[in-house]
Amino acid sequence: MKEILEEYALIAEIISALAVIISLIFVGLQIRSNTKATQASTFHEIAALDIHILLSLGSSKESSRIISTFRVNPDALTEEEHNHGFHLFAAEIRHVENLFLQNENKMLSKKNWESRKSLVDGMLLTPGFGALLESPNKQFFDGYFIQYAESLRKKHLKKDDDFENKN
Q: Where are the transmembrane segments (predicted)?
């Protein structure tokens, strides 16, 4: 009798272990599915924000001219235009900061980040971003984002210096 109970106990343990393994596989699949859904939702929100920013910045010829000038040569603007351009540009930078932080928090898939990384890096390498870095307003952006930007700008300057020295 004792042997039969021990056999039933062993069978119960095996069934219990299989149930735990099956449960863990199911939970893993659910987490993976939820991660994809979260990433898709995040990307959708970012795309909607992209569209909103583009429409806002292109809403008038004057705003378009000011933001375009601020990006490449902020010193070419009058003081009033510079202030206006700075605020428009800061909105753009807040957007690329969000992209950067979403990627850092694994909310973007690798594919979605790669499609946006050139936008982020391109904005950070502009003279307009250099003006933002020199202003006291840089404190209002995430410190890790600013460190990334400064590091990227240093690498880019080094590449430019290396290129000029070779030629």
A: 7-29
